[in-house]
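Residues determine shape. Take a concrete instance:
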Amino acid sequence: MIPTVGFNMRKVTKGNVTIKIWDIGGQPRFRSMWERYCRGVNAIVYMIDAADREKIEASRNELHNLLDKPQLQGIPVLVLGNKRDLPNALDEKQLIEKMNLSAIQDREICCYSISCKEKDNIACVIDCGISHFSGLFNTQNPEEAETSSDVFQSFLAIILELLSVPLKYFPEHGPS
């Protein structure tokens, strides 16, 4: 998986619902833009290189600075520590500790150790999406319920694509 430079945007429309997914680079020159792209979103997926221990502190500080912005209050966060296939990668417990995730009390937060390269632990990301974030796409209108489900399935498909995981690994979660 090649790190994002700048940003990529994907847009999915199903019925009267549109989802925009912003994939924003983590390089220092792009960090000042993070807040602008995160305003008004339904969820934040924050991916870090779990094998690059030298940058964990900076990553923690950036995440906490981002989440301290009043405009982003309450937005749920999914923290993904990529490269778990490498021997020096932090596991989930270490990520939670080093990223000081337990200090984040004003929102729902999930953390997983994954490997995009090896397609490892990606199912946990899907399960987290289903159990924690699917409500973001629910609707009170029964006529829109099917569309909402389709949109959520498309959302998961896009997340998998951003993680460079072909849908063939999770066909039950692909768009119908």
